[in-house]
Amino acid sequence: MTTTYPSSPAETDRPETEALFAAFIRRLVQDASMLQAIDLGEVDAIIDPVSGHAILLPATQEALRQGAVPTNQMLATLPPEEYQRLLAAGLEPVTLAFGDLLHEPGELIQHIYFPSAGLLVSLLTTLQDHMALEIGLVGSEGMVGLPVAQGIDTSSVRAVVQGPGKALRMESSRFREALKISPVLQRTFHRYTYALIAQITQTAVCNRFHLVEARLARWLLMASDRLHTNPLRFTHEALADLLGVRRVGITVAASALQQQKLIQYSRGNIKILDREGLKVSACECYQKIKDIFDHV
Length: 296
Ligand SMILES: [Zn+2]
Description:
- By secondary structure, the chain is of the alpha+beta class.
- The chain is 46% helix and 20% strand.
- The protein has three domains: 11-66, no CATH class; 73-205, Jelly Rolls, CATH 2.60.120.10; 210-295, Orthogonal Bundle (Arc Repressor Mutant, subunit A), CATH 1.10.10.
- The strands form four sheets. Strands 4-8-6-7 form a four-stranded antiparallel sheet. The protein has a three-stranded antiparallel sheet with strand order 3-9-5.
- Helix 9 crosses helix 12 (275-281) and helix 10 (236-243) crosses helix 11 (247-259).
- The protein starts with 17 loop residues before the first helix and ends with a helix.
- The structure holds zinc ion.
- The site of zinc ion has 6 residues, from helix 9.
């Protein structure tokens, strides 16, 4: 039995000693089978019926403290006390599947997401009578829901999971409160804002001027940097949608890269054979975007 975390732990209400906390839990949980499950370590958290907050049980808290050394680079660069403060304010683990829709244009951003290593999220701009075009890629170097950090409640883009994996997420309102009182967090998000805008700007120019083969090489390198897997699993159709070209354009470009022995393509699996060679084939945008993220 595993409880999900619809809300954050009410840390301020938490009794200080282990014995007091155990008694506190028993006052909240009347059901004998639930108490037994808690004793067996089968429950991660319970919901306080009064406040509606999720209360993480001690083992879960310890796992978050020790096991969840964040693989998200934004969180990893925070001082440990800032990260702990975000955990206490409601940062919670979530597993995301391929195709999960995190935000839609014009809709309220309920949660912000910090992808862990291996999760890949596409930011897409939608147009009437056209397929959505990718304008940004987010992995463990960044976050999804950046407008919240700027005080904006709604998304201007569609955010879709392209590579399944784990993330830490937080309710937007709680994140905004945490940000308000932390200059360290503010600096971290200002830097990421600059880098993401640079990526989006470069992608716009790339989509307009660079050849499909170079753009495909750039995209495969960016995706592999974030997914940490080889081969990558993407069909020609998916790549055509993301790059805003016809499927045949991707087929021709992938064949050219394969003939140069840079990649091997088979049934939706794209294996990068020669990473350095692929960098040479990619347009300049790959290195420009990478340099900005490496140095910001
Ligand atoms: Zn380019």
